[in-house]
Amino acid sequence: MKATIFDIQRNSFVDGPGIRTTVFFKGCNLKCAWCHNPESQNTKSELMVYSNKCIQCGKCTEKCPYNLKNCDLCGKCALFCLQEARMICGKNYTVDEVVSEVLKDKAYYEGSGGGVTLSGGECMLQIDFATELLKECKKNNIHTAIDTAGNVPFEYFMRVLPYTDLFLYDIKCFDKSLHKKYTGVSNELILGNLKRLLSLKSNIWIRIPIIPSVNDNAGELLKIKDFIYKNGEVEKIELLPYHKIGEHKYEALGMELHSFDLLSKERLLELQNIFNI
Amino acid sequence: MTERIEKLCELTLSGKMFVNPIKTKFDVNDSSLSKIDMETKRLCEYILNQEPMLTPYSSMTGMFNFDGSVVGDAFQRSGHAGTAEALKKYYLNKIENLSTMEWQHATADYERVLDIGISGIINEIDKSLKCHSLPEEIEFLTGIKMVACTLIQWAEKCSKAALELSKKVYDDNYKQNLLKLSSALLNVPKNPPSSFYEAVLCIYVCFSANPDSVGTLDRYLSPFYFKDIKNGVLTHDEAKEYLQELYLMLQATTHIDSPHFTRGGQSHFCIGGYLSNGENAFNELSELIVEALIDLPTYIPQITLRWTKSTPRSVLRFMMDSERRDPHKRIAFTNDEKRIKCYTEICKIPYERAVKYTTVGCNEPAFLGAIAGSNSKGNLLRSIETLFHKHGDEICNFDGFDELYNFYEKILFLDLQKILDYDDQYNLLRAKDINYISSLFMCDCVENAKSVTQGGGNTAIASPMLIGIVNVIDSLTVVKELVYDKKLFSMSDLVSALKSNWVGYDDLRTLILKKCSFFGNDADVSNEVGNRLYNSFYNYLYGKRNIFGYQWLIGDLAGYNEHYKWFGEDTKATPDGRYDGDLMKFGLGQNEGKDKEGLTALLNSVCKLDKTGIGCGSTVTNISIDKKMVEDNEQFEKLVDVFETYFKNGGVHFQLTYVSKEDLINAQKCPNDYKRIRVRVSGFSDYFVNLNDHIQNDIIKRTDYKN
Predict the structure, then answer these.
(1) Which chain B residues are closer than 8 Å to A9 by Cβ?
(2) What pTM, to 2 d.p., does this model score?
(3) What is the ipTM of this complex?
């Protein structure tokens, strides 16, 4: 069994407690307008071309069997591009391969209360692999977390539940039409799954991306807060301010970029006060 | 900071606290005396001819500097003819592009002088005189006894000057300070101090005898501190002021016109670590020692925390927090577990002495009352150059990596031996000098009736610093992984590429840079190659000792000087992608952007490198981290966890720089706008804009880890 993964990031300080290794699965069934990992959306491997890094040396054309007119993702153009202007995003891994990467930092997890986080994309779209990976991590006494947008059948949650110590659960918008407008899907399944997960008393951190002009208002956030507290308890609520770090990837993928304003520090503090954080 | 310290600080940072030497006229008839008699006589005359510096803000005095007219201390080595000859021949002068001579650091045995005073040392000299009979030994002991007596007289002279001045001043605080100082100088350094103040003053006065590291300050000052605090005769704030006055003197010792004035490598000392009873030395005073330093906007001294398994996380956190708050980058970290194991098991140093090590200068280990026994720099990458450029045809016929490595190891050992031989040669020249004033405060020199420059101390290690260790690991990894394991290209292609300095082999070089699992990525292949190299070091060096009988270890740092540039200039292309003449790598920190797997991967590679301990000489691991990571408190806590785990895993050393790559690049373009950025260079720190282009580019190339 293999999964398409676009990055295994060691030494992650931001995807759950302690020091973590985050495994980024490729493929997502949401298309968030602000997505900072657009390369995670497509299920398949793809070529990314950063034109700003290209120095027109012609090496890629020279190495490509098809003169850059076709691409079978052989990766030769990327291999010989010293400027890192071309790269193949997405690689197939077996469970053992991922586990052996994850185990390399076990001492750091133990020293910090960290572990592994499955992220993406939507890691649960590759549910068989994700379940096996989590099972193996638990066999090795590694703390496990799943970073999910929640837009999958609840049955998937039930499959990973025995091997998952923490869910990092994203809520983008509470308003259904707003959610549909900016992510491409309704949030009914997402909120329904969260409600059921809360009822099972799972460990959950809620993560809310704060996007100016979309959900950076008290009305939206208060509704999210009410929903959470009405249905159970969570360990933590994190507000993740919108950033532009991933913008250059849109051009590299040939995707259309939607840009938003940045959130001020003061505004973020005001919004955090809503959740008493 | 009190007003008094603020004023002293202003004077220090404007260079006004430097004690200018006073020229001394010597009796011309003394040239008929024996060498030792003449040198000690002149030394004594010189010391007593100096004038103490007293400012309206001082509560201490007694510092003096040498001018080269007499045989001075063992650090600056002014007036040391043998050292002058060695410097002329070998300092900053590449020998066979393999070795250069460097400065030697040391720390005096302040514990002993606080314990028995100089009068106690004089008693020890008298005892030693009864045990020795060779004329040169008797002469040496008689000479240093005279110097010891002179230092007592010097303190009396300082006392008198303070008393005289007290009669002329009207400010009551100033008058009281002078009277206290005058009275204390009649007791110390002659006798053991009776208070914390006198203990600090004793170090202050004796520092001129060895103006380098103050050693393990917290442990030898602790008895005085806790006694005075308990008896209610000292407050926390007073103790802090005395320490700050001491630090300002350490800063003032370096002349303001010296480029070293803004660098932290001099007067580097340690706190914490194992005591001889196995307990941890870090205590309330250690914390105060750090707090006192962080308040001062100075560059010198520099403090290293000695971490042990019993160091609480809160202590490491306190030190890392102090470090992140310190814009002058004066704090570093080292691991006792691996070091003490090395010093006791490999170097056979008794445990009680091994626990008294301190890192001095740019992180050279020395023991309290001992010298860093070597300090030359060696070009390790020359062995790889020889392998590929002189034996290119032979190695193309080898069957596999083992055969290649065994062949390489022979070349490595030949170069290592030459590096050791040159190191001995430097020491042999320096051993022509007899040092009197520093030897007085060094362990064993009195008992052995021998100068510290001639191997008078029993405890030291000899650690030449090998530049290019990571280049060697990377070069061998390229061969193992890409030539033999993956067979991406042939050995003859690689040899041809190197011989043509990669001209016509761009693709091969790109393939190497893209595909090789270089050091720092926690890849099995480079970890194993690194291990094998360190095992070779161990096998060759274990049991081998330098001319003074000190065990050889290896180190990897560069000091103030650019050995990595100079050696690199004459080293041909190497398989790690280096062009002919390119810089080489020093230290074990970030690998010029070749480490792509993040901080934990780099630290794992460093921890896994040396299982033998042979690398516990002068070593440095520089880590550059994006400043945002320490500005966020939650992320900072994780950073503390990372480095605690690193030490638990066997890392020996680390020091940090927090900057963004963008800031550094902008600083190169507009230095005036970025004057305040301070970075770790080798074992020292300096303002980024003060560094030359080569070092600046090297620092920019170090990967900065973000999240």
Answers:
(1) 598
(2) 0.94
(3) 0.92
